[in-house]
Each structure stands twice: as C-alpha cells, then as structure tokens.
Amino acid sequence: MKKMSLVVMAAGLGSRFGGTKQLAKIGPNGEAILDYTIRDAQSAGVEDIVLIVRTEIADDIKSHIETLHGSKHNCTFVCQDDFGPQRKKPWGTTHAVLSARNVVDEESSFLLVNADDYYGPASFELASNQLPLLCAGEGMLITFQLAKTLPQSGEVTRGVCEVTNGLLTQIVETTGIGFNSSGEIIASSTDQQLDKEVPVSLNLWGFHGSIMKPLEQQWDQFLSENVSDENSECLLPESIHNLMNAGNLVIKTFSSEEEWTGLTNPEDLEVVQSRIQELRSL
C-alpha cells in the first residue's frame, strides 16, 4: 500500500481568537486540537505528518510536538512564509498547501486538515480507507452536516457543498453562518437560511500528490492579479472549484457523522475543553 501523509495547516494568525490557537490547551494533558488530529490520523494508518507553520511560531510548535509526542514524532515542519512574496497575513489555504510541495511525494496521497478543527477518529478512518484509491486528477472531501459543525453562539465560515451522486459539483465559501434566536441557521453575509443537513467542508481533503502542479497554476494566476493586495487570499475551495470547472479534477465526497468542535473566538475555549472531554470519553 502507498504511504499516506497528513498535512496540517497551522500557520494562521488567530486574529479573532487573539493568540496562537493552534496551541490552545484543550485536553487534560495540555493537548491542543492538532494533537488529537495527529493521533487519530496515525491510528488510521497515516505515517508521515507535515505541519505547515509560520516562522514566528515554529519553535513553539516544535517544542509542543516534542513534549506531547516524544522526540521520535515523525513530523516535518514547513514555514508557509518561506514560500512566495512576504507579507504579514498568510496568503490563504492554496498557498499553504503549495508551501509543502517539496515534502509531499507526487506519487503518493495525502490528507489535508486545519489545525484548529476537531474531526474525530471515525472521520480519519473513513478518509484513510479511501485515500489509497485516489488516482491523478482525483481528490476527495469528507463532508459534515452543517448543524454538527456550528458553535452554540457566534458565526463561522464554511464551504457549503453541492453533491451529486457522491461527487462534489460546487463548493461556496460562505461567511457569517450561525444560529439565530429561533434556532434557524442563517448566513448573515447573504441573509440566506441554510438547511441543517446541508453538507459542508471543514477542509478535510484527500489528494493525489499530483495536485500540486495544477494548484501552482492557480496560485500563479491569483498572484498575478493580487500581488499588491495585503488582504486577498488564495483559498483552496476556490482553486478546487476552478479546477473542477475546467475538467481537470474530480472530487469524491464521503459524509462523516462526527460532531465537530473547534476554536474561532476566545469564548470557544471552555466550550471546546468540555466538548473534547465528552467526545474522547465516549
């Protein structure tokens, strides 16, 4: 069987959270969410771990990983800000993936996740079963039911998906999603009411290593149009959408029944600590 890797996007600024949420302690032994992600992926058969960080937090994350996973942790660290033009704000999730292009084997497959989202063991088991089956020009996305991915208060961004016969046909990055006072799910950015069971992306992707070249073309096009914009981001859902529309990529979808928890705002911390304790004791 081909070797499987896990690529963790952990370079975010944590602007809304107000700090390095990648290392926020949410477990009984000081675990961060990414520690559960690494353990769940390894339990599902993933061998190599790639952590995409930024220079200013790299040493802190390396120290944390060694403390929680030992000196033989099998993690490779990549600084996203070493790739492309320099600016304070990271260039987005497509750029993050490409920053790891030199440590991902083009002939093997890899899982891609956020550092601050909890996906659960069953999600990684599902993903690891499908990942070795991917060929060049194919990817996969583990989707979640929208209502299972929302905090009790506050708003989040989700990639709202359209799926036909198990294939992703559209993904729209939608901001300002949350519950209103009546318990309905509203996207305040569009004043749209969303169905509780609509499939959404939390960036748990699976790709064949050959995805890097077409993603690099997407990045080059984006950069040519946005090089002087300090806030624009080259977002993976948009790049994926472009590649699908061009007929260069097919994304298979698989639905996870897991309950999400994650960090966005400071008030999420106690909720996530309690939720993790509950989920990991099941």
In a nutshell, what does this entry contain?
The chain has 282 residues and is of the alpha/beta class. It is built from 7 helices and 13 strands.
The largest pleated sheet is described as: 11 strands, mixed
Low-confidence stretches: none
- What structural class do you assign from the helix and strand content? alpha/beta
Regarding CATH, which class?
A: Alpha Beta
Number of strands: 13
- Helical residue percent? 25-40%
Mean pLDDT, nearest integer? 91
Q: What's the CATH topology name?
A: Spore Coat Polysaccharide Biosynthesis Protein SpsA, Chain A
What radius of gyration results from the CA coordinates?
A: 18 Å
Q: Determine the strand fraction and express it as a percent band.
A: 25-35%
The arrangement of helices and strands along the chain is: EHEHEHEEHEEEEEEHHEEH
How many domains in all?
1
What distance lies between the first and last C-alpha atoms, to the nearest angstrom?
31 Å
Number of helices: 7
Shape by Cα distribution = globular
Question: Which architecture would the CATH scheme give at its second level?
Answer: Alpha-Beta Complex
- The CATH superfamily name is Spore Coat Polysaccharide Biosynthesis Protein SpsA, Chain A
Describe this structure in words.
There is one protein chain. The protein has seven helices and 13 strands. The radius of gyration is 18 Å and the shape is globular. The model has no long low-confidence stretch (mean pLDDT 91). A hairpin with a 2-residue loop joins strand 7 and strand 8. The strands form two sheets. Strands 1, 2, 3, 4, 6, 7, 8, 9, 10, 11 and 12 form an eleven-stranded mixed β-sheet that branches. It is 29% helix and 28% strand. The protein is of the alpha/beta class. Helix 3 crosses helix 5 (212-226). It has one domain (4-143, 201-230, 250-280): Spore Coat Polysaccharide Biosynthesis Protein SpsA, Chain A, CATH 3.90.550.
